[in-house]
Amino acid sequence: MTTKSWMFYGENGEFKLDQPERSSSLYFPLVNEAGMMSSVTPNLHGEITSGHNTFLMEPVSVMDLHNSKASRNFWVFVDGFGAWSACGNSAKQNAAVFSGTEETSRLEAGFLWHKLTREHAEAGLRAETVNFVPVTDDKIELMKVTLTNTGRNPLHLTPTAAIPVYGRSADDLRDHRHVTSLLHRVFTSRHGIEVQPALSFDERGHRINKVTYSVMGATGNGQAPCGFFPETEEFIGEGGALDWPQAVVCNLKPPVGPDEALEGYEATGALRFEPAELVPGQSVSYVIAMLISDDRIDRARIAGDYLSEARFDELLEQNREFWTKKLDTVSFHTGDKQHDLWMKWVTLQPILRRLYGNSFLPYHDYGRGGRGWRDLWQDCLALMVMEPEEVRHLLLNNYAGVRIDGSNATIIGSKPGEFVADRNNIPRVWMDHGAWPLLTTLLYIHQSGDLELLLQTQTYFRDMFTGRCKERDLSWTPEQGNKLLTRNGKVYEGTILEHILLQNMTPFFHVGAHGNILLEGADWNDGLDLAPNRGESVAFTAFYASNLMALSELLLALHRKSGQSSIEIAEEMAVLFDTLSAAPVSYDNIDDKRALLDRYFGMVGQCVSGTKAKLDILRAAEDLKRKAEWMIGHLRRNEWITSKEGYEWFNGYYNDDAERVEGDHPDGVRMTLTGQVFGIMGGVATDEQVGKITASVNRYLKDENIGYRLNSRFGGIQQNLGRAFGFAFGHKENGAMFSHMTVMYGNALYKRGFVKEGFEVLESIRKLSADFERSRMYPGIPEYINEKGRGMYTYLTGSASWLLLTELTEVFGVKGRYGDLLLQPKLTKEQFDADGKASVETLFAGRMLEVVYVNPDGAEYGDYRIKEATLDGEPLAGVSEKPEDGLLLSRSLIEGLTAGPTHRIEIVLGR
């Protein structure tokens, strides 16, 4: 049985796929800003929820997509032919997939709508089912089913919509599933049913429940259902099932009408409509609404706002316009249209991460909603491009999660700036967490020129854990709140700059036996979680080194651009600027570095004085630079390794036995991609070393079948390093193509001018993801690609933010520099179209810009430079003879352009 790939059609990323049911684990997201989060499969399985404790349909893992029968369904009893599912989800139709008698079906999807078409060839009946979540203030999903007689004879149909209503917390799926059904109170009305459980049974306690789950429906012209089967056991019948329910198969009369109440049973929104007679060519439509509300619904309003075909079509068009406009904020045009349309779906993914967090899609069957600390900062990377008006507020609030010891909260609330203590009092520190905020904040400053953000003040997070969660302050109680206090009991605030300094300076002193920063609970790779005592992350030591250098340069820029001569910090922090004291620490002496940090921890264990120390900004910058230079020199001297085959690269880790992880080993050469990325990206690796690293990566990590592996085969479970090695090799954090690190590898290569190599890396990800025969995923980038080439954990991945940012700022070279616009293209010859053009539309300084690069000579990167440039047809000055300098346009020039229309910057490239 062959499987055809999806195909793009139109100009806005719409795609279609024939016989989508032939591929397992496919699902599509449907979501709105009001908090409705749905997923839908080719047979309309999936889930509908507004949060961990409020699932309308039952929570599903990817395995449930074929195990569970509880899906959205729309049944038609056709006289002379029997029961048929318009969604293809019946026992009879599912059995036909491998029998050679399956029906013709087609999936079509776009931003953000899903359409399924199925043909009942024998009866001459076509069903078109469209699902979407409208961009209204309601938590609602809409579904329209259109039935058309495609045959030669009249058809007599009896339609029944059937959506099982789970109506409770995900915790109840395994914990008291039946008992919680006894809480169900079901109310019928003219257009459908409402399920309002009497109590909520979850970790919050047994509380009176108000949340209501509703399934409403009408014909396209507004005619209400003629009856209901609200109890699941009555609907399916003894011996029946949701994919072969007795009520439909035997065409039973509905036992319940409007204005009735039932209780104590599992519920199904099974809505029976009046029988319909369709002559050849005639169609009839039905609109179904699935809602989650804070209390009983206003039935008349819902019916008027949603339950008609005209209103459905109007809302669908509004939905398309909303998402198209949002995604048009960034749009790429190259010589490869498939690439450009695929990137539209990548552009959507960071928005999906903001709305879903890391939960509520079938592969993302973990967590309880929200995002982790790292996610807060990495998702902001794309938001600066997509939704820039939100970013300053988010950044400012996110810094409230920093502890005074340089670590941070790990439980993130749903609102900006909301952080809570660890739910189970389990202390854990990811050593990489302190590195990401500066990277994101720097991007914001360069995009906006807003250096003033650094001087804004923010609180600190406080709980019982101190000394990077190594100690517990038993005097602290939750009643004191989660804000750091001064000795006199006032809430302490420090500048954002102070927060950033803390996060990057404390790790500098927190080193292991080999002088690298301790791994603690793990770094970016959560799977390296079994080396908390003696493990070291060389990879992120390189990241922190580049951060300290960037901080030094940032202080100099603050001095140069704002006239700032000093910075204010908590007086306890002054010890971290050790080179400014009379007794600086020897950075080669590990014990002295740890002792200084312990001294600092001792000063801030319970509170701070509240007194500020002033440091000369130039001397502070010099201190940071010295620390960075020491780290860079240390890494180049001590962590550069050579295999027996003569390949060279950076070691990335030490395990909990203080053993170097990478290099030659009896089980084969061990290498990690993470260990190379940050050395390249942050300038730790010299240009010569970058070339040697790429050769080593190609030798030990590159696999033509799945791309650039996260690591080579280590052999055996590594109990002294991390759980990742318990996974089968080629899966997730153990040797899969992990998109996030691969994209960052490509980004790092572009940053260092290795454009050909970077292009190959990014193209490999796209080609692997778009190879549907193997990846079995819709357009977009997955979290990882497994050993079989299958795309896993689709839609919700931070790699989308990095890929979008890399394409815009590195490939197309459209980036900020302290608020000005720098154009520095790194396009390869093949990325220009047949007319020698490549372009990107993007928002900068509040103006929509189309940046067009013209390459009339077909020159390759490295051979061309910017020869001339125009803005809206007028020549621009400032074109440099040095290709690497690019073209710098002042922010005032951009802001002086008329708001509203798209302005065209055309740059001619030549040798």
Automatic annotation (TrEMBL):
<dbReference type="InterPro" id="IPR010383">
    <property type="entry name" value="Glyco_hydrolase_94_b-supersand"/>
</dbReference>
<dbReference type="InterPro" id="IPR037018">
    <property type="entry name" value="GH65_N"/>
</dbReference>
<dbReference type="InterPro" id="IPR012341">
    <property type="entry name" value="6hp_glycosidase-like_sf"/>
</dbReference>
<protein>
    <submittedName>
        <fullName>Cellobiose phosphorylase</fullName>
    </submittedName>
</protein>
<dbReference type="Pfam" id="PF17167">
    <property type="entry name" value="Glyco_hydro_94"/>
</dbReference>
<dbReference type="InterPro" id="IPR052047">
    <property type="entry name" value="GH94_Enzymes"/>
</dbReference>
<dbReference type="InterPro" id="IPR008928">
    <property type="entry name" value="6-hairpin_glycosidase_sf"/>
</dbReference>
<dbReference type="InterPro" id="IPR033432">
    <property type="entry name" value="GH94_catalytic"/>
</dbReference>
<dbReference type="InterPro" id="IPR011013">
    <property type="entry name" value="Gal_mutarotase_sf_dom"/>
</dbReference>
<keyword id="KW-0328">Glycosyltransferase</keyword>
<dbReference type="Pfam" id="PF06165">
    <property type="entry name" value="GH94_b-supersand"/>
</dbReference>
<feature type="domain" description="Glycosyl hydrolase 94 catalytic">
    <location>
        <begin position="621"/>
        <end position="809"/>
    </location>
</feature>
<keyword id="KW-0808">Transferase</keyword>
<feature type="domain" description="Glycosyl hydrolase 94 supersandwich">
    <location>
        <begin position="104"/>
        <end position="305"/>
    </location>
</feature>
